[in-house]
Design brief:
Length: about 300
């Protein structure tokens, strides 16, 4: 193929995030590839690669901060700090699914979690999260104690060892991670009754330089095309549909938490960007600001 006039070939390198089992980002890079393919007639050919070495979240930021870093794009739950430091493509890659949270727990604790009805009840438990993760301030704002782990993989062992009570995972991650790690962590289970929710969009981030500006413009254009023609929803269903269906989110007791770190530019008003599994009647919902009683209704 020949690059489009005026544009050199686009080269993207995204981070390898773990040396072990880590399928968390397969969908994201499929979305990126589709967005680049959609825009090839306008912007030209592209190459998309994964970095050769695994990178922790701090290492990813370090590599992105350097103009000669080994990567030039990453995907992450947004924060004001990230949006200042890097250029976000403000379209939620996973349609906001990251904000719907299931809990990985020790199987023996299920009865204890079945009694959790309110945010006040949740405050009696300790959450396990990774260091610097965007949902740490969400739990802290809600008054839920947080224990931070230094590595994604290590958090599963910390849960089993009793260092905290639950490991908050997105609705699609929890079942997949349980299936992948059940043999290694036989005491772990997916909690059966609760669904936490808070708005937590995941964006593609690029550098704030000339190359990054062009990349962001291209990715945004491609994703807007995908949203309009249904390609994004098709990929979402292909990668996430079965896992979402198996969580039975509509049957769970929903506790809403506020996200104090959303920036004013967050596109919350664009309903077509956001997945909402809570449109069936009969959900039990605890609003973010209440936390003392359950109410019934649609979100």
């Amino acid at each position: 193929m020949i690059a489009a006039p005026g544009f050199a070939a686009t080269h993207l390198t995204y981070p390898l995030t773990s040396d072990g089992i880590d399928s968390r980002y397969d969908y994201d890079w499929a979305v990126l590839r589709a967005a680049l393919e959609k825009t090839t007639p306008r912007y030209g050919v592209f190459e998309q690669h994964q970095s050769d070495v695994a990178m922790s979240p701090p290492r990813i930021v370090q590599e992105m901060t350097s103009p000669s870093g080994r990567i030039n794009i990453f995907v992450r739950a947004t924060s004001p700090e990230l949006e200042r430091q890097f250029m976000p493509v403000r379209l939620p890659v996973d349609r906001g699914l990251l904000g719907y949270r299931l809990l990985l727990i020790r199987a023996a604790d299920q009865q204890r979690f079945s009694k959790v009805k309110t945010i006040a009840d949740l405050r009696r438990l300790h959450a396990g999260l990774g260091q610097g993760w965007a949902d740490v301030p969400i739990f802290e704002k809600a008054g839920v104690p947080v224990i931070e782990g230094s590595s994604y993989e290590g958090l599963f062992a910390m849960l089993e060892a009793g260092r905290f009570d639950f490991y908050s995972r997105s609705a699609d991650e929890a079942l997949r991670e349980f299936q992948e790690r059940h043999d290694a962590h036989p005491q772990m289970a997916v909690e059966q009754t609760l669904l936490l929710h808070y708005p937590l969009p995941r964006y593609f981030f690029v550098r704030r330089d000339a190359e990054g500006k062009l990349l962001a413009k291209r990715i945004e254009a491609g994703m807007e095309m995908m949203i309009k023609d249904g390609t994004l929803d098709t990929l979402f269903q292909r990668y996430k549909g079965d896992l979402i269906k198996n969580t039975a989110m509509q049957k769970r007791r929903v506790i809403h938490l506020a996200n104090p770190k959303l920036t004013p530019q967050t596109p919350l008003a664009r309903g077509e960007l956001w997945f909402n599994p809570l449109t069936e009647p009969g959900n039990t919902v605890v609003p973010a600001e209440a936390g003392t009683h359950a109410s019934h209704g649609r979100r």
